[in-house]
Amino acid sequence: MGGRVTRVFRNFNVENRASREISKEKPTPAPRHRTARLDTTADSPEIKEEVLRKDDRFLTLLKDVYVESRDPPVRVKDGGGEHLPSKQKEKRLTKLGHLEALDVKKVSKGKISLVEALTLLNNHKLQPQIWTAEKIAAEYSLELKEVNSLLEFFIPFTVMEFPKETKKAITSHKPKQLT
What we know:
two-stranded antiparallel sheet
């Protein structure tokens, strides 16, 4: 219902309103800036002739000009080599075992992935005589100082089960039998 009413008002007297808008006087354009007026006069033949004319006095002065230019010596900055894209870092394959699908396949030397970090921490925790800091550093291409700090400050989670002392209380309570 509402669409019909709006359509009636929208289409009411459309032709008269359109012809009234078309017959209105067009507004006068804003005055042009004088630089825009100069562009139109640049096409005149007198100006083109003035531009293309050679002045002998200026040509002789121009021939006497000698320009000598010296560039300052180029300084090469040292230490910018680490940002060059041509320098490729050595990568190594990760040692993941059964968690291979969870982690990246290649890691830069001197770094380890998250799964590798958890694996080596767990191995050191379970067998500290076998997995020493020196062996871990050699195995994962890490620095010994970094491995020592890793083993000192990062400890993997441990699951502790406490004995249930409340078994007697639970078993001594006899459930009621339904009759």
